[in-house]
Write a structure and sequence with these properties.
By secondary structure, the chain is mainly α. The protein contains nine helices and no strands. Helix 3 runs antiparallel to helix 4 (about 50-60) and helix 3 (about 30-45) packs parallel to helix 9 (about 150-175). The two termini are about 20 Å apart.
Length: about 180
Amino acid sequence: MSVETLQSLIPAYGRDLSLNLSNLLAETLLSDQQKWGTFLACAHAIGVPAVVQNIETAAAQALTPEAVTAAKAAAAIMGMNNVYFRALHLMHNKNYETLRSGLRMNALTNPGVDKVDFELWALAVSAVNACGLCMDSHEKVLRGHGVSAVQVQAALRIAATVNAISAVLRAESALQA
């Protein structure tokens, strides 16, 4: 399994998605670890088996085992945080924002990879999960570490493309059932 296998699963009407995937894989704005970690974290956040399997196989060639684990941790922790903080943001009763969350988030402080890389992955997963509060928080940290707007945009483009490919394959799978 590989990126080529993943592209072969995309139907003709998703040609733009396949082209975007190719372009993003050739992207040089992000380091290989940043790029592949973003792909992997987003794939895990969405959870479509064919996307996860193919991206994980390809990413394993570019990432250390520690980076693979950290990308998965970004998907896991942000899956929790995005729901919690998005809910607080959307609720009219702002008293909940003053309460301690009581949720463990150790992966954020000790991710096992460069903090900037993990923050980039957390931002991309937050985009997939539509948590504006978390996107703003992680973008602020990234910009404070000198990450450019076009680098942030590159991560968002990866998130959008992985999300769209996952949606297409999920829909096509439903037609096969």
